[in-house]
Amino acid sequence: MARATKPESRERVRDAERSRELILDAAEHLFAEHGYEETSLSDVGKRAGVSRATPGYFFGSKAELHRAVLERCFADVRRAVREGKARALASGQTPDVILAGAVADYSDFVAARPNFVRLIEREALSDRTVLEGMPLRLAVWQEALAAFRQELGLDISDTSEAAHLLLSLVALTWFPIVHGGTFLKAVGLDPQAPDFAEQRRRHITTLLLGALRERAGNTSTWS
Amino acid sequence: MARATKPESRERVRDAERSRELILDAAEHLFAEHGYEETSLSDVGKRAGVSRATPGYFFGSKAELHRAVLERCFADVRRAVREGKARALASGQTPDVILAGAVADYSDFVAARPNFVRLIEREALSDRTVLEGMPLRLAVWQEALAAFRQELGLDISDTSEAAHLLLSLVALTWFPIVHGGTFLKAVGLDPQAPDFAEQRRRHITTLLLGALRERAGNTSTWS
DNA sequence: GTTAACTTGCTGGCTGACAAGCAAGTTTCT
DNA sequence: AGAAACTTGCTTGTCAGCCAGCAAGTTAAC
Questions:
Q1: Are residues A140 and A77 in contact, defined by beta-carbon separation less than 8 angstroms?
Q2: Which chain A residues have a beta carbon less than 8 Å from that of B39?
Q3: Cα–Cα dist B219/A205, whole Å
Q4: Which of A104, B27, B55, B156 is the most exposed place for a label (fewest CB within 10 A)?
Q5: Greatest CA span in chain B, whole angstroms?
Q6: pLDDT tens digits for B119-134?
């Protein structure tokens, strides 16, 4: 089983692990880009460079492949959340600075992985119930919320304050990914423009910082 | 066949206009709820109380029906935008108050018509090009942007400021509609709770007002 | 160290389900 | 009677899942 007994032989060896990954990559791209229903296992096979039937062979069914893609996606998100949290806590900065850093971190993350946003967005819109039976996804958001609270020094008394703040961060960050070609263009914003990302990041930071300062008789002044 | 030979004719009268509306209503619901691909013309016919082929008879094709649904949807949005603009300008209030009112108005609108949000969101995610050939949708957003700018007294110098503000309003307002059952639940927010809508509205208002005041050396103080 | 028995990776053909669109009805209205 | 408003039947196409098979490897027997 342990892969790679490859002494010479640089040719195409049969490699289940590699095939699985190729299929997952292909499926992630196609599911994110065109949606679950619009993607056939044939398409996945073609893009992965394997045959029509191979995705089914490895993952049992289309639904199972889909679940595997989502699972891997949430695992990546969790990793990013943990890295961000570690960085924020290690910095020892004020909540203001930490919040600004979180905005930048998360903006970068979704910009680097737009497929994740699209995948989750599609899933939320669909009436599929895959997400229900996925404890990982629940854990990820709860972990993010806890980290957010801790980083910003929000006590537990006002329980929903941090949730609303996180919700807003996510909403503001995701929107341009999904509606970049439609809404943004319509109101004269070009998400491809070199300064758009920076401009947007600034705007989001302004919004959230205002709310954070307003929240309590905060002593820190910034500006 | 089923037809129930009506002697008196309390029965289904033939009314093309009414049938069209019933079909549009059914299609809007199904497209929004389950998506375009997952909805068959049979489903639409069944929900509209007509036969399998009637949607095709009136609209020519599934794609045309879809386009008709979207067109009607944007027409409704435009009506709402115009009403909101008229109300705002008639009020003669300060930008702060007007912005708060716009948040309330728009929150109510999307809460009352979650299907519109889902339809547009699905359309943005899909790789269909229907929206391209729909001047109405472009006009609606541009009209909304112009109204926003005028209401808030944002001059034309900083052209993207109003766009970012509107973008944020839309992003913040739409998100709970789409992710109410997934993300919101995960972070402990219940979009069905009686006070959620109000709480959310307040939060959004706080965010946007902060940004509006920050934008310029604004003289108005509020709080 | 060759070969035979067996496993794993992967493929193409087949089938049953379902959907879109058309064509040829049938019913109702005027 | 004729057109408009529907409906039923049919054709064609697509796709998921199953199956039988083959080829590349692996283990074991000799």
A1: yes
A2: none
A3: 22
A4: B156
A5: 77
A6: 999 999 998 999 998 9
